[in-house]
Amino acid sequence: MKFILLSLFLSPFALLAVDTRQVGAASVDITPEYPVRLSGYGGRRLPNTGVSQHIFAKALAIGSDEEGPAVIVTVDNCGVPAAMRDEVLKRLAAKTKVVNERFAICSSHTHCAPMLIGVLPNLFGMDIPAEHLPAIERYTRELTDHIEKVALAALADRKPATLAWSVGKVGFAANRRNFPTKPVDHDLPVLRATGADGKVRAILTSYACHCTTIGIDEIHGDWAGCAQEALQREFPGAIALTAIGCGADQNPNPRRTMELVKQYGEDLGAEAKRLVLGEMKPVNGPVKCNAKQIDLAFGTLPTHEEWQALAASKTPAIAYHAKKNLARLDRGEKIPTHLPYFVQTWAFGNDMAMVFLPGEITVDYSLRIKREFDHARMWVNGYSNDVPCYVPSRRVLDEGGYEGAGAMVYYDRPTKFALDVEERIMKAVHEVTPKGFVVPRQ
Predict the structure, then answer these.
(1) Over the chain, what HEC string results?
(2) What is the tens place of the pLDDT at every residue in 245-291?
(3) Which of 100, 184, 235, 413 is 20 to 30 A from 8, alpha carbon to alpha carbon?
(4) β-pair type (378-381, 173-175)
(5) What is the pTM of this model?
(6) Which residue in 406, 295, 425 sits closest to 361, CA to CA?
(7) What pLDDT score does 115 carry?
(8) Spatial contact of 248 and 361, defined as CB atoms under 8 Å apart
(9) What is the mean pLDDT of the chain?
(10) Residue 170: which residues within 8 A CB-CB, separation 6 or more?
(11) Are 339 and 298 in contact (CB under 8 A)?
(12) Residue 319 forms beta bridges with which residues?
């Protein structure tokens, strides 16, 4: 079934046929009704004191059961772990036609959402007090249920719709590293789902920037939450979903005030609105989903003697991390030498390809992908399907610093990555992305 785009003006997209497909969207409030520790900042040691903004899990389901639906879920949280995705996928596979390569979870990385079991376990540089664990464990279970619920709701909501997309610009992200090279990616890809009645049903955006404008002791979605509110205000009845690009080394600038949080959300919402109301490129063709599980090698692991020296560090997080690994060795456990890493792509015919990369991944990856593939047809998401640690490019790894090495202790990883981390990931991206998106080498 086709819709025909008619225009009184000569535009590049006039008179183009647009595929009608089954699309559904849903939203579930995931704000806890009880106090729970927040993630993101290690200096906060007490449960949240209130709620400044409700947080959500939202889902967009694309495609019929016959062709195989693709479901993307966005979650207002610092990071959804792979174990949670695996559990939700197992439940969905028993009830629906959703399969591994056609299911993606994108975390907003807000630093004002509840802590989850399996994400940033060493954030506080000490054991979490026993009295705080039940709330964290409870919220982890409840969020798992919420993600399943919203995915099922989006699948149940599927109706005829068309998809279109465009890319704008937003400028509030700045490279935060204290090194001479400071790349940024200010692209704002926007996907619009429009119902048969002409109304906008869903809007998906993605921007490469940390959700660290504020660090309050209350629940809040940061700029991503404000952007969703802005778009849903402008398009009543539509569901706005926000993902994050390769923003591990990008911060909002300036930051630290609630006024700035709202401003950034409104800025992103205004740019997305401009695109949604303008001429967008049709997204046609079947959704071809591919995925590949790879291993990222860690560098040389510390020896027992080196762990002992680190355990004497005056930096609490380093000492705590080392003592945990010494205890593992004393129990006869092996320290892992590799990190499992899930690379996923969705190609919508020849019109657009989405890349989903796990972890706090640095901006060099999105920039490289958009060099080696057709920039005009590529959409790159980070913080996808798992947030196991920072994932530096080779340049950032060589430079060192927090994103290159220092942050690994908070994620309980044994050491920094081996030098081939970028090449392993890019090789997998090329393997799972259709060749028609590759830019021919000169």
Answers:
(1) CEEECCCCCCCCCCCCEEECEEEEEEEEECCCCCCCEECCCCCCCCECCEECCCCEEEEEEECCCCCCCEEEEEECCCCCCHHHHHHHHHHHHHHCCCCHHHEEEEECCECCCECCCCCCCCCCCCCCCHHHHHHHHHHHHHHHHHHHHHHHHHHHCCEEEEEEEEEEECCCEEECCCCCCCCCCCEEEEEEEEECCCCEEEEEEEECCCECCCCCCEECCHHHHHHHHHHHHHCCCCEEEEEECCCCCEEECCCCCHHHHHHHHHHHHHHHHHHHCCCCEECCCCEEEEEEEEEEEECCCCCHHHHHHHHCCCCHHHHHHHHHHHHHHHCCCCCCCEEEEEEEEEEECCCEEEEECCCEECCHHHHHHHHHECHHHEEEECCECCCCCEECCHHHHHHCHHHHCHHHHCCCCCCCECCCHHHHHHHHHHHHCCHHHECCCC
(2) 999 999 999 999 999 999 999 999 999 999 999 999 999 999 999 99
(3) 235
(4) unpaired
(5) 0.95
(6) 425
(7) 98
(8) yes
(9) 95
(10) 186, 188, 207, 267, 268, 271
(11) yes
(12) none
Report d(CA 305, CA 301) in Å as an integer: 11
**What are the pLDDT digits (tens) for 100-113?**
999 999 999 999 99
